[in-house]
Amino acid sequence: MATTDAEAGRDLGERFRRWLRERHLPVTRQRDLVALAVFTGGRHLSVDAIQRLLRDQGHKIGLATIYRSLEVLVESGLVRQLDFGEGFKRWEAKRQGTPHGHLVCSRCSVVTEFSTDRFERILPLVADEHGFLLKSHRVEIHGLCRACRDAEVGVLARAGRPGG
């Protein structure tokens, strides 16, 4: 039976608490809340989005505490920090499963994950062609999402009409 995002988030939360205890680091309510926000709050969250999510749940946690908690989460290996060149960073849980890339809209900043077996199969071939030992990879494709492309086409169509 497939696990739900909530179950996966709880599992990652328990792994994080265990990781903290093994290193004799404090298991605090704030760290736990930030971790659960990242593990269950959706993908590619900014610090502002994490703070807003926690505030909407009735928790008041300062930005400095969120940043410190995120540093520890990255150190634990359960969370990855992403920089899509937007002027701020985002975070996502490292989930088991298929590796994925990111499609980043340069207009509205929407990030869409994609995964394809063909892509994953070609990466080792490309590395091998160049005598390179592939250890990891990160794929980001920057451009316009469908909604922004459609909006742009609409603007161009209206501009081309007489009287428009």
Q: How does this model look, in words?
A:
- The chain has 164 residues and is of the alpha+beta class.
- Helix content is 50%, strand content 14%.
- It has 6 helices and 6 strands.
- It has a 3-stranded antiparallel sheet with strand order 1-3-2.
- A hairpin with a 5-residue loop joins strand 4 and strand 5.
- The chain is flat.
- The mean pLDDT is 84.
How are the SSEs placed, and which strands pair?
Blueprint: H1 5-22, H2 29-40, E1 45-46, H3 47-56, H4 63-76, E2 79-82, E3 90-93, E4 101-105, E5 111-114, H5 117-129, E6 140-143, H6 146-160
Parallel strand pairs: 4-6
Antiparallel strand pairs: 1-3, 2-3, 4-5
Helix pairs in contact: 1-2, 2-3, 2-4
- Strand share of the residues? 5-15%
- Give a quick account of the main beta sheet: strands, pairing sense, barrel closure: 3 strands, antiparallel
Strand order, main sheet: write it out: 1-3-2
| Distance between the amino and carboxyl termini | 56 Å
Helix content range of the residues, please? 40-55%
Which stretches are poorly predicted, pLDDT < 50 over at least 5 residues? none
Kindly state the number of beta strands.
6
Judging from the principal axes of the Cα atoms, what is the shape? flat
**Arithmetic mean pLDDT:** 84
Q: What is the helix tally?
A: 6
| Global Rg | 20 Å
Structural class call reads alpha+beta
Element order: H for helix, E for strand: HHEHHEEEEHEH
